[in-house]
Amino acid sequence: MGALSHIRVLDLSRVLAGPWCAQNLADLGADVIKVERPGAGDDTRHWGPPFAKDANGQETAESAYFICINRNKRSITIDISKPEGQEIIRKLAAESDVVIENYKVGDLAKYGLDYESLKKVKPDVVYCSITGFGQTGPYANRPGYDFIIQGMGGFMSVTGEAHDFEGASPQKSGVAIADIFTGMYASSAILAAIIHRDHTGEGQYIDMSLLDTQIAVMANISSAYLTTGEVPKRWGNASPIIVPYQTFPTSDGWIIVAAGNDGQFRQFVTVGGEAHLADNPLYVNNPLRVQHRKQLVSLLEQMTRKKTKGQWIALLEEANVPCGPINDFKEVFENEQVIARNIELNVPHPTVGNMKLVASPMKLSKTPTEVRMAPPTLGQHTEEILHDRLNLDDKAIHELRDKGII
């Protein structure tokens, strides 16, 4: 039994931030009901290719995007634009602990499904709204997309090739970090609100913003600006305050070297056959190496190109110099550490057969996470939920289906 096996979550969210939050709660044992549009479902069901293939190698309707954020959930299809659909949501909310939604500001109020409406049927509900810019401020009504938030929140101003590199330009992250981090913060906020409810009996409203989150996770970068008033710059794969602390080319690929002190720098250049660099007056300590970064890095790149990636990793690990390869995803999932940690999972799925998933990284000794269910097919659990949660009989469910409510 997971730590949250006593918690019921009604997930009205779509795409990434909300579903990521709900999946975290589900991995910890919560019973999560995912509400989707009849016939269409979550937008991400159609975001592909790639789509998962069945045992015969035939492509299914299960997109890789949807798969990664919807395990351990049950899917019900409900048309919330119709009064009968809204009533089903209210009844499900009445016996849920948590409601998660990521509609535009004010949209759910039109259907009587906003916080003020649902707390009338469930006074202690924890209600979490996730939007691009939050519920207040001049941008509140704007749609928020991760890519735009990465730009507005400063991330792209410090990501990409160094500012003085010819042809350099800002770059977004390879994964939707604003969405994912907002989902992570939202799940933490929900857990805090549940603890508060358990102590006081009070529910509460949680207002999560992608822009707020993006600025917050800039961490030392945001702090550096607030501390000094100096606008941070792009440094590519290098550190602005430590040298050498960046990627280096080898004869057959790239490695990362993170020499955080003078001793590690000496070991780095010694195993590379250039020990004299550690005694050069221009490079004897980190402030000097930062000052003379350009000429030193050029010399180090000449040195690292003389050996293969594998040779460098072996030499540096033996010398206790922090280092690592830059793996593609084939190399990631073939890595012995990744295999030992059971990161890749195989679970049964009704259309795919054997579905591969990435395990939750949360490893609890007493209440471990587990994959109880593969990501659901569209509406897979509609009848089950209506029977078990709302005590509807087959006739009532058939009538709802005939009317297009479910």
TrEMBL record:
A Pfam family reported for this protein in Swiss-Prot or TrEMBL: CoA_transf_3
Database matches in Gene3D superfamilies: Crotonobetainyl-coa:carnitine coa-transferase, domain 1, formyl-coa transferase, domain 3
A GO term for molecular function: CoA-transferase activity
Keyword field contains Transferase: yes
Record key words, sorted: Transferase
InterPro entries the UniProt entry points to: CoA-transferase_III_domain, CoA-Trfase_fam_III, CoA-Trfase_III_dom3_sf, CoA-Trfase_III_dom_1_sf
PANTHER family: SUCCINATE--HYDROXYMETHYLGLUTARATE COA-TRANSFERASE
Protein name: CoA transferase
Taxonomic source organism: Polynucleobacter campilacus
Lineage: Bacteria, Pseudomonadati, Pseudomonadota, Betaproteobacteria, Burkholderiales
